[in-house]
Design goal:
Layout: H1 6-12, E1 26-28, E2 34-40, E3 45-51, E4 55-57, E5 65-78, E6 82-86, E7 90-93, E8 100-114, H2 118-127, H3 132-138
Antiparallel strand pairs: 1-2, 2-3, 3-8, 4-8, 5-6, 5-7, 5-8
Length: about 140
């Protein structure tokens, strides 16, 4: 059995400069919903959306989207059809859809998850006026 060296481990542990605790999300500019970037890295970006009116779900032909409905209900529309959504559901939105709209029947909260290009995401956040320090709290890596 291996011996544990807790005292030696504590001697080399650096506690300064950690970002423990809740970090504020970045409020994204949107005319039709309250959108906040919660966390992002090279593997995923997660936004929380709170919507009470028809909201465009921006399409990107290079990435799929996952929508997790936290609260509310309504309809998801694409160019060809409409589907009813409700709290507790997860919706996979393929990259091939050119237009998707979220039309709440009641106020809706959801998580939107994508696999971003991290450099492009950071550049977009800079373009929206966010400072590097604020971005570094939410975008890891």
């Amino acid at each position: 059995m291996a011996e544990l060296h807790i005292d030696k481990a504590l001697e080399v542990t650096r506690f300064e400069g950690t970002r423990a605790g809740k970090l504020p999300p970045l409020s994204l500019h949107s005319p039709d919903a309250n959108k906040r970037l919660l966390a992002a890295c090279e593997f995923f970006a997660t936004e929380r959306w709170d919507c009470d009116r028809t909201t465009n779900i921006e399409a990107d032909p290079t990435e799929f989207q996952l929508l997790v409905i936290l609260a509310g209900g309504g309809r998801l529309h694409d160019a060809a059809s409409a589907h009813t959504y409700q709290a507790g559901q997860a919706w996979f939105v393929p990259a091939s859809l050119e237009l998707t709209l979220l039309q709440p029947n009641e106020p809706t909260s959801l998580l939107r998850v994508v696999v971003p290009d991290a450099k492009t995401l950071v550049a977009q956040l800079h373009k929206q006026g966010f400072e590097e320090q604020d971005i570094s709290h939410v975008v890891i890596g």
